[in-house]
Amino acid sequence: MKHQSLQNPRTKYYHQDFSKQHQPAPGLQSKMDPVPDCGEKSYQGHERLHGRKILVTGADSGIGRAAAIAYAREGADLALTYLPDEEEDAKQVAELVKQAGRKVVCIPGDLSNEHFCKQLVEKAHKELGGLDGLTLVAGKQTAVERICDISSEQLRKTFEINVFSLFWVIQAAMPHLPEGATIVTTSSVQAYESSPNLIDYACTKAAIVAFTQALAKQLAAKGIRVNSVAPGPIWTALEITGGQPPEAIPKFGQSESVLGRAGQPAELASTYVFLMSDDSSYVTAQVYGITGGIRL
Ligand code: NAD
Ligand code: MG
After folding, report:
1. 54-85 per-position pLDDT tens digit
2. Which positions ≥6 away from 288 have C-beta within 8 Å?
3. Domains plus CATH for the chain?
4. Ligand 1 pocket at CB < 6 A
5. Which of 38, 39, 179, 251 is the most buried (most CB within 10 A)?
């Protein structure tokens, strides 16, 4: 068996300053410097999701990509959704799922559109031959200094993508989800420790915490568990496409986290796997912080 050497968490992943960089949203992570580590080379599966059929939103890049790679290597078949502009990143994920020997269905589209959310679920269910897990990771974050400068368009889209799409996707999925199915949402440390330039985003992430807790209580009677992951500062396309002001990019994650660096998406994968799998059978209505030490 491979020897697991101890690693200092402060230096385990990239911990230098990032170079200043910006892309228009949603961005391609393959063009980032450094490219986020989503576990492509490191994640090892142990059949913990063998035969599961899971829909992952925001699966092309960042945290959703890390979850998708891990799920495939744990034996799950996947439906992946993302925006059409992200096809290049998504193709890489689809290839990795196939390399893991699992089925992959790619369904690009806009989650702020109710009709697409419903179609997405039906297509995932049909093409996977069932649906027993939802991992809802897609999100929008746009930093704006002053509340008066938040446009109604931004406000609406942020709520539609981050909150409304959860309702639409889960409403469509309910008739298909069997006993034992699991749902994982993606909140944020921003729900608890909100930044002044992310008011709208922080509100949506707090809404996701309430959504997760209420839905878990509602679905417990059906034998369906619902939990959330609350990431801290993670190096992803979200941050360099307007999620942070450009001047905040070089030191992103350094001062706010206890561990002194931004996290990488790969560092969240095993928590998503745990919450999706039977290993977490006594866990529901919970929020798991993966924050580099920032308290929820
Ligand atoms: P990311 O940019 O790699 O992933 C976000 C994904 O959301 C995109 O790839 C895109 O596919 C999807 N998306 C955005 N708008 C969409 C739309 N209209 N329709 C369909 N899909 C859409 O960034 P990430 O950081 O991995 O983000 C994943 C989740 O993690 C988000 O919900 C984000 O709020 C949350 N989060 C991130 C951080 C962080 O520091 N990166 C911290 C806390 C929470
Ligand atoms: Mg992306």
Report:
1. 999 999 999 999 999 999 999 999 999 999 99
2. 227, 228, 229, 230, 271, 275
3. 45-142+152-232+269-288 (3.40.50.720)
4. 26, 29, 58, 60-64, 82-83, 86, 110-112, 137-141, 161, 186, 188, 231, 233-234, 236-239, 265
5. 38
